[in-house]
Amino acid sequence: MPLSDTVGVLPGVGPKRVAALADLGIVTVGDLLFYFPFRYDDLQERDLATAVDGEKLTVKGTVVTDPVIARFGPHKVRVTIRLQVDRTVILVSFFNQPWLKDRFHRGQEAAIYGKWNAGRNALTAMRLVATQDQDAPSMAAIYPLSQSVHQKFLVSAIKTAFDHYADEIHSVVPEQYRQRLQLLTDRELVRQMHFPANPAEATAARRSAIFREFFLFEAQLQAIKQRDTAQVNGLRIPFDNQRVRAFIRTLPFTLTNAQKRVVNEICADMRSTKHMNRLLQGDVGSGKTIVAAICMYAAVTAHFQAALMVPTEVLAEQHYAKLSRLFAPQHVSVALLTGATSAADRKDILARLRSGALDIVIGTHALIQKGVDFNALGFAIIDEQHRFGVKQREILRAKGLKPDVLSMTATPIPRTLAITAYGEMDVSTIDEMPAGRLPVKTLWLHKQQQPRAVRMVAAAVAAGGQAFVITPLIAESEAVDLKNAEAVYADMQQTFAGKATVALLHGQMKPDEKDTIMRDFASGKTAVLVSTTVIEVGVDVPNATMMLILDADRFGLAQLHQLRGRVGRGDKQATCILVADPKNDTGVSRMETMVATNDGFKVAQRDLELRGQGDIFGAKQSGLPDFRLGDPVGDFNILDTANKVAAAIFAADPDLQAPANVTLATYVHRRLAQAESLN
Ligand code: ADP
Ligand code: MG
């Protein structure tokens, strides 16, 4: 298929640029064409009379002075001109584009996009839209970029790709549905996403593109489901019921009814020839790990191997420590395999996995790399499964004997949404907490009461506890987030000087730096951890009794609940303090919900009710798969329709043989093949 040509075939895209594009995930011409902008600059001319201070807009006028160039600081250059717009003369400044000096002359017309300063009658220019001899485009697409891929190059590469390949873009949504749903053809949506003639075209293209993205996702799930039902000869794991019961009796507590129920559901799948693909959801602290342990043990009694894959090294180590202690009396062998495992240990572990000497392996992505071969992998668990893609889950499922797979998530998802987002899986739910657990006390304070919050943190630390201090999420800029976190960190260091150790954790650290910081906190070396939201889900620090969340109104409900779940994991009373002055009713409702309930399902339900279209709290926080364009919550109706259309298509034509489905078939089968070939 020509769209799978490498971008290197395009004129102007040499080997260096091929490599740079690959870093953005763009390998083929198709990837490039479907690499969409995240916003547009509106380049349509505006009337200055209606302009608001700080607004970004395009003005058109006549240059009335020769350009003046000024150098300041070691590397800074400013080019200024005066531009007459209607009857007003405004000052326009361009920064660090010295060559523009030669582009302007008196009497010339120019359209310029920039940020309006009403007080000074000045425009900080961001883009020269056109001079009089050029046609002015009305919208400019703005793309996510990297160090080595710039806007200008990307735009021209996409233009070239579209000029050469437009005829090869075929619609993945079969014609009948495409027309019924009034969606653009894929060719038209690609054109309008990149080069919209006006805002209406951009909006229409986006709607079609979101549907397309959801539809391909749902179609892939349908294809997996289809393949699984075709494979009636899944693995049968005839475990030893007596031994499993005996193992459960060795636990220091009795299982909750919900834990018993889900163990039974999972075990029923194992015993049958059905290929298990099940999602286990349960709130933080509901006891999923022990359920995982029991089921892995069951597989081992049937002489199969089991694997547990988690998203981070810290989490892997923690599970390993817990489970090896638990399994030691049962003579079950357990190993830990991560990126940090030494070459010698790795070699030894791989050999034991291959020979069958090793029963259980716990690890990170390292488990699905080439060279990891099992003797008899029968059961695989993926913890915090939304942190892995469909592809990675598929790689694990395709290993050796095609094991039964259990995915786990600590982020409760309301049922309707779970079915749509994880349509290929059966769902088990732990909806009950172990008895005797002290619920986390949640408090909402206003910003002016922040000193009181800090005093409470200090008291908790003085009493021997540990504390998290979470700093706000400032939309879209990690750099700004970091600055903020550093300021809070400095504050806390002052507060705790001579009393306790404070550490800082943020998203721009390397993974091993983060792991070290987390490890020091888990071991009690540091007492106060200031962190942006990168703080790892699932990490268990029983001694942490205090969670302080600053500017809590900047977080979504799902995320607040996850953060709160980091404390209250031991037997001491824990507290979560939200500091926030919400700016609207929704924000107030979020805080009130947090104070009112500790139940993750209730929080999730309320989250859905409170969220609107275009909410800044994206899907990333809600335990749902990541989409590039669509938001599975805000765009739920589109997701739901995509799910139904995909199901209808597969019901009528399970193997996608019909001519109307030929483009869809190409996409779906290629993706599945990719997942399996990585194995
Ligand atoms: P999560 O679902 O967040 O992974 P864990 O499995 O880590 O929860 O369990 C949280 C804590 O509760 C652990 O210390 C675990 O030993 C304990 N636990 C699990 N099940 C029970 C139970 N039925 N009764 C009492 N404590 C339990
Ligand atoms: Mg867990």
TrEMBL record:
Give the EC class as a word.
Answer: isomerase
All copies of the Helicase C-terminal domain together span: 455-616
Question: Is Isomerase among the key words of this record?
Answer: yes
EC code: 5.6.2.4
In what residue span(s) does the Helicase ATP-binding domain sit?
A: 269-430
Lineage top rank: taxon: Bacteria
Pfam families assigned to the protein according to its UniProt record, in alphabetical order: DEAD, Helicase_C, RecG_dom3_C, RecG_wedge
Does the record's keyword annotation contain Endoplasmic reticulum?
A: no
Mind listing the GO molecular function terms for this protein?
A: 3'-5' DNA helicase activity; ATP binding; ATP hydrolysis activity; DNA binding
The UniProt catalytic activity note for this protein reads:
Couples ATP hydrolysis with the unwinding of duplex DNA by translocating in the 3'-5' direction; ATP + H2O = ADP + phosphate + H(+)
Q: Which UniProt keywords apply?
A: ATP-binding, DNA damage, DNA recombination, DNA repair, DNA-binding, Helicase, Hydrolase, Isomerase, Nucleotide-binding
Q: What biological process terms from GO does the record include? A: DNA recombination; DNA repair
Q: What does the sequence similarity comment in the record state about its family?
A: Belongs to the helicase family. RecG subfamily.
- Quote the NCBIfam families the UniProt record gives: PRK10917.1-3, PRK10917.2-2, recG
Described purpose of this protein according to its UniProt entry:
Plays a critical role in recombination and DNA repair. Helps process Holliday junction intermediates to mature products by catalyzing branch migration. Has replication fork regression activity, unwinds stalled or blocked replication forks to make a HJ that can be resolved. Has a DNA unwinding activity characteristic of a DNA helicase with 3'-5' polarity.
Q: How is this protein named in the record?
A: ATP-dependent DNA helicase RecG
- The species this protein was found in: Lacticaseibacillus thailandensis DSM 22698 = JCM 13996
